[in-house]
Structure formats: C-alpha cells, structure tokens
Amino acid sequence: xxxxxxxxxxxxxxxxxxxxxxxxxxxxxxxxxxxxxxxxxxxxxxxxxxxxxxxxxxxxxxxxxxxxxxxxxxxxxxxxxxxxxxxxxxxxxxxxxxxxxxxxxxxxxxxxxxxxxxxxxxxxxxxxxxxxxxxxxxxxxxxxxxxxxxxxxxxxxxxxxxxxxxxxxxxxxxxxxxxxxxxxxxxxxxxxx
Length: 193
Hints:
The chain is an alpha+beta fold and 193 residues long.
C-alpha cells in the first residue's frame, strides 16, 4: 500500500435509494454499483466530487422517480495515482485506447465504438480472466449542458465564446470498482434545522 503522501484522497458523494445507502453505510465491502455499459465509465459505484453536483443529480432523480426515497452519502475516496484510470485527459485516454486495442487484437475481441462503458468493462473483464483488478476506479468528465446558469459568473450570455472558456456544465465523476478505496462513509443531512 502506498504511503499517504503518494495517495489521492478527497471527499466524494453518491446518490442512491435509501435501502442501498443503508447497506453501503453498514457493509464496507458493499458498493451500490451500476452495471452501466453505455456512454459513461462502465460498471462501478458512481460518485460526484462535490456536494453541489450530487444535489443536482438528486433533484433529477426525484423529478424522474418522485415515489422513490433517495439519499446522499459522503465518503472519502483514496487510492494511489497508478490505480486510478484517469479518462479526463487526452494522453491517458490515448494510452488506455492503445492498450485496449492491443489486448483485443490478441484475444480476438471486437471493440464497440458506440459504447464507451462497454469498452471499459471489456478492459476490466479481460484482466479479470487473470484475477487482476487493473484499476480501483475510473475518472471521467461528464457534460451536463442543462446545468443552470448563475447571475454573474456563469450566465448564458457570457459563455457565447465557442473557444475554450470557463463553464459549470462539466462534472467530474468517479466510478469506483474496489470497495477498499472508500475509507469513510456518512449520510448527508440536506435538511439541517
């Protein structure tokens, strides 16, 4: 295990059904994992890197499923840098794609150019044949164009520039596959009195 100086450590937030959150809080081996196989980061328990984004997601879940009781949990995510598949930068994405392409050629597996999550899952599945978990988690950046604007810094009219610009519409998401990366777990009380 890497020393604390060599580890990535930060708070993360997850939105889930009340029963799943209860299980996650009580069982340190349990991950409320998605079986995602489409456009995101593949299988894993999805976390936001800040409470504001978790509340944004919670509002959307409640709107789509008003009869479901959702809760937010805060956790501490910790891993060494070499155990995080960081798909938020071009260099690491290209390295990952090259490695995946080579592995698929060797074993005769086709790539799915339409489903990012399926390819990430394929990568992990190929390693699982050797009882190896290649990474503890996958980090991606999601685009959420419906994120509300603000009154001063991030108004719709001040982001008219088509070139690089500051925005609130991208969100960092981490799909955790190894429960040992989650050190602390606490339910978030959003209705403090």
